[in-house]
Structure formats: structure tokens, C-alpha cells
Design a protein that fits this description.
Radius of gyration: 21 Å
Shape: elongated
Number of helices: 5
Largest sheet: none
Strand content: under 5%
Structural class: mainly alpha
Number of strands: 0
Distance between the termini: 43 Å
């Protein structure tokens, strides 16, 4: 296997396993034995995005998953059911989440 491929695969595993700690470019580069400058260029070439963008994506996806699990929890569902207006007071307004 290509050693660059293996390094980037290792970096991706490291970032995925440590994204809650928000590892810096220097930390990830050090983990795979490269300078931050060389790692940045190599990661961009192999992954198609910068290490920072990849970390941001993982963080946002994790946050979305957490929010969705919160909104589908039994407690929130029960609170939503209690807070539902009666048929006589329901308006025709449409609210969309962004």
C-alpha cells in the first residue's frame, strides 16, 4: 500500500476517534509523523478537503445526531404531547426548522 494513503487513513482514524477534543493540526500531524505543513497539503490532496473542514464536518454531524436523539427522546415527546394545542385553537401557521 501507498505510505501516503496509510498516513492519511491513520490521520482520519485519529481525527474520528478524537474529534470531541478538537485536535489541532499540529497534534494530528505529530500523530502520523509529519510536519503540519506537509500534513495539511497531503490530507487536502488525498481527502479532497482540509483537515479542519473534515473535523468541522464530523463535529456538525455529531451535533445533528445528538440533537435528533434529544428531540426523539421520550421526555421531549411527552412534553410535546402535553404542549399540543386543542383542535379549536390550532392555527394554520407553518413553521420550518432551518
Amino acid at each position: 500500500m501507498n505510505s501516503d494513503y496509510e498516513r492519511i487513513a491513520s490521520a482520519i482514524r485519529f481525527i474520528e476517534g478524537n474529534f470531541p477534543n478538537q485536535p489541532t493540526l499540529d497534534e494530528v500531524a505529530s500523530e502520523i509523523g509529519l510536519s503540519s505543513f506537509h500534513f495539511q497539503r497531503l490530507f487536502q490532496r488525498w481527502a479532497g478537503v482540509s483537515p479542519k473542514r473534515f473535523l468541522q464536518f464530523l463535529t456538525v454531524e455529531y451535533a445533528k445526531t445528538r440533537l435528533m436523539s434529544f428531540w426523539h427522546s421520550p421526555i421531549v415527546a411527552a412534553n410535546k404531547a402535553v404542549a399540543q394545542p386543542t383542535t379549536a385553537t390550532t392555527s394554520n401557521a407553518v413553521v420550518e426548522a432551518v
